Amino acid sequence: MRRVTSLQMVLLVLLVAFIVVPLLMPVIFSFSVYWQDILPEGFTLQWYERFLSKPATSRSLTVSLIVASSAVALNLVIAVPAGYAMARMRGRARRFLVAVARILPLVLPPVVVGTALLLAFSGPPLAISGTIWMVIIAHTLLGFPFMIRNTLASFDTLDVNTLSEAAQSLGANLWQRLRYVILPNVAPGVLAGALLVFAISIGEFEVTSMVAGFEAQTLPLQLFQQIRNDMRIASAISAFLVYVSLVCFLGMTWLSAYLRERRG
Amino acid sequence: MRGIGWAEWVLLAPFVLFVVGFELYPILVMVGRSFFDQSGAPTLAYYLQILENPVYRTAIRNSLLFATAGAAVGALGGTFVGYLAPRLPRRLHQFLLSLYALPLTLSGLVVAFAFIVLLGRNGVLNLIARELFDLPRNVYFDIYSWYGIVLVYAFFQIPLMTLTMAAVFENLDRSLIEAARNLGARPWQVWRHVIIPVLAPGFLAGLSIQFAGLLGAFGTVLALVGGAKNLLAIQIYYHTSESTYNLPQAAALSVVLIGLIASVLFLLNRLERWARQAGGG
Amino acid sequence: MSPLLEIQGLFKRFGEVVAVGGIDLAVEEGEFLSLLGPSGCGKTTVLRCIAGFEAPDEGRLVMAGRDLARLPPERRDVGMVFQSYALFPNMTVAGNIAFPLMLRGVEREVRRRRVEELLALVRLPGYGQRRIHELSGGQKQRVALARALAKEPRLLLLDEPLSALDAKIREELRVEIRRIQKELGLTAVYVTHDQEEALAISDRVVVMNEGRIEQVGTPTEIYRRPKSLFVAAFVGTMNFFRGPVRGGALLWRDQRLQHRDLAGLPDGREMVLCLRPEEMRLVAGGGGGNGVNRLSGRAGPTTFLGAIARLRVFVGEEEWVDVDLPAAGVPPLEMGRTVVIEFSAEAGVVLPAEAEVPGGRGAAALAPAG
Fold this sequence. Notes:
The structure holds 3 protein chains of 3 kinds. By secondary structure, chain A is mainly alpha-helical. Chain A has 11 helices and no strands. The longest helix of chain A has 34 residues, at 55-88. Chain B has one domain (53-280): MetI-like (MetI-like fold, Orthogonal Bundle). Helices cover 77% and strands 0% of the residues of chain B. The longest helix of chain B has 34 residues, at 247-280. By secondary structure, chain C is of the alpha+beta class. Helix content of chain C is 23%, strand content 33%. Chain C has helices at residues 43-51, 93-103, 108-121, 137-150, 167-184, 195-201, 219-224, 229-234; strands at residues 5-14, 17-27, 32-36, 58-63, 66-67, 78-81, 155-159, 187-192, 204-209, 212-217, 239-246, 249-252, 255-258, 270-275, 281-282, 293-304, 308-314, 320-326, 338-343, 349-352. Chain C is elongated. Chain C starts with a strand and ends in an 18-residue tail after the last strand. Chains A and B meet through α1, α3, α4, α5 and α6 of A and α1, α4, α5, α6 and α7 of B.
C-alpha cells in the first residue's frame, strides 16, 4: 500500500474541491432562503416548489424527460446494433468506422450541427425544426459516440464473439444466443451508455437552443432564462440537473465496478 | 478475419441512414446555402463578408486565442492530475478519477450558474477575499472577463484531459523506464527518448479534443456574458436567432469553423506522427 | 468401417490469403487426431470449418455419412473447446455446463445430476455454484471441457485448449483430456502449435504448413520418419546434413556420409540427411565404435535436460550438430576440446533437398550446397 505524502494530501483536497465546490453551489443556493453574504441563510424548499408549479418550468421538465428518454431509446435501437456490427468486424473497415464515429463529432461541433439542422429541416421535405422531434433527433446524434464506444467496449472486453460461437457450438440458435449470452453480458455496458446519453441529453443546451421552438423548451433552456430572471428558480433547476448527473454517474460507477468484478 | 458481411450491413443500416439523413445531409445543405443569396443566385458575398468585416475577423481571432488558452489550461491541468492520480493509493486514485468523470455529464449552464454564485461580482469567493484582505469593492476576480471564462471552461477541460492522461500514465510501462535507466540513460534522456514519445500520442489526442471542443463552445459563454464576447460560435448562434437572423451568413461562418477545427486536428495529427518518429530517432 | 468425418478438397481463403489450400483427411471413429503446425498454417480454419463457424469456399465435409454444408453450427453434432475458455461469465459453473441441456429442454433434475457427473469426470466435484471469475485457468478449461461434453457430441473439437496455461498445468490437463477421451470413447480433433503436445496426446498427427498437409501419421512415424524437411525441422530437434550424392554416399564437407537409403541414388542429386541428437554418439577417447560415419569437431556448450545432456559440437565455423549424451556419469566436457561423433548407416532419414530447410526448431548444421 502506497503512503500518501502531505503534499499529495493537500493537492488531493484542492483537486477534489475544484470539482465538488462548484457542484455544491446550486445545491446550497436552492435550499437557502437568502444568500447575499458569505454564508447563506435559512432553509426552504420553496424554490423547488416554484420550479415545479410554474407552468413554463414544470412543462420543460416533462419535455426534457420525454426528449432524454427518446434519445436513449433511439440510441438503443440505432447505436447499439452499430456498435455490435463494428465489434464483429476486423481490419480496415472497422478502423474506418471507429475513426468516423470518433472524429465526426469533433469536426462538427454542436453550433454547426444546430445551424445545419435549422437550415435543412425548416422547410420541405421535412419541416420539423422547432418541434420536439428535431430536439430528439439532435440529442440522439449527440449520444451516438458515447453509446457506440460503450457498446464496442462491452463486446471487446468480454469477447462476445467467441462466447457467441461457444453458445452456438452448444446448440443455441440466434435467438437463444441473444437471450442467454449476448444480452446478459453486454447489458451492463450498454446500460452505462444509456445513462450517459440520458445525462447528456437532460443537460444539453447548445443545439437545443438553436433548434427548439416554443413547444420544445427543455429544462436547460428554462434555466438559461431564469439565470437572468430569477436566480432562485435557476438554483432549483441547476440543483435538479446536478442530481440527475449524480444519479446517472453513480449508476455508471456501480456498473463499471460490477463489470470489473465479474471479469475477475 | 472478417470483412463486412450482410449481417454487419443490416446492423449498421439504421445508424448509417440516421447519420447520413440527419447529419451529413444537413451539413451539405448548409454548405450549399452558404454559396447562394436570399434570391437564390450564387454568391461568395458571405465569405467575402467574413474576410472584410472586422467583427468576423475579430471573432475568428478571439476563438483561436480562447481555444488556445483553454486547451493549454486544460492540457496542463489534466496532465498534472493524470500524472498524480496513479501515484495515489488505489482507492483514492479510483475516487479521484470517478470524480473527474462527473463534469462530462454536467450541463454547461449549471456550471455557469455555479461560477456566478462563486465568483460573480458579489460571489462567495470574492466576498471572502474582500473580508480576508480588506480589498476595496472594485477589486475582485471578474468571472465575466476572458480569464473568468477560461477558468469556467477549465472545469470541463481539465477533467476531460485528466481521463485521457491518467490512462496514458497508467499504461506507461515502468519496466521501459527501468530498462532505459539500466542501459545508462540519464533522467532527462529517459524523458526525451522514452517517456515523452510514449505520452505524446495520448497527450496530442487529448489536446485535439480540447481544441475542437473549445473552438465550437458557446453555451456557457452565452450564459455568463450573453453576446458581449465576440467568438465565432457566438456569431453563428446569433445569426441563427435573435435580431441578426441571417442563415446563409451563419452557414458560411459554420463552414469556416469546420475548416478551422479540421486544420487544427490535422496539424495536431501531424505533430503526433512527428513525435512518435522523433522518439525512435 | 467408414470414417466418422471425411474432409474432401477443403479450400478456404480470406481475401487474398489462402488459409486452407485444398486438403483431404479422414477422422476415424474413436481416434484422437491432432492438427499440428505453425500459426497461420490453416489448422484452426479447418477446425472452424468443421464446427461451422467458417463456410468452406470449396470441398465437402461429410460426418457420419451426412454432408455438413447446409447445417448451421448449432445443429452439428460437435462439441468445441476454445483457447480462451469462452465460459459465460453471467452464469455459474453449473449454469455453463447445463446450458446445452437447458437448450434441449432437459428436465431440471436430470440436468442437475448430469452436471454432477460431468464435474466428477473433470475432477471438479462441488464446484457447481462457483462463479467463473473465481476459477483458475486450468479449472476454467476443465469446466469448458465438461460443458462441451454435456450434449454428448459425436466429435469433440479442441482449439489450442492448453495454450493459455502454465507449463505444469498444461501437462496435467493434457493427460486428463486423453484419459477422458479414452474413457468415453470419444473422437477428438485437437489443434495445437506445440509439437511435443501433439506427439504426447494423439493417436495420429496431421502436420500442416501454409494451408496444406505435409504428413499424416502416428506420433512415432512423424518423429522417426518425417516425410518432408518441414516436418523434420518442425517436430523435435533435428540435425541436417545437406549435399550431393556421390557413389551411394552423401558428400558433406569432403566427407562421405553413409546411409542405407542413399544406395542406388544417381550421383549429383542434392539430398539432406536428417539425424536426431539421440541417434548419434560421442566416441569415447577416440576409440573404435561401430558407426560407419564419423565427424570430428569442437565441443560447445552442454545443456542439461534431466535424463540426458545435449552437447553442441561445432563442425565448422558456423555449423553445429547437437548430440545427446547420458547425463549420468559423463564428465563435463571442456569447451573447445576436439571430439568425435559417430552414427550408423541406419540412423536417421534421407530426404530430397527440394527446398531450403525451414528455420524451425533444430535446424542445425547445414552445409551450403556443393
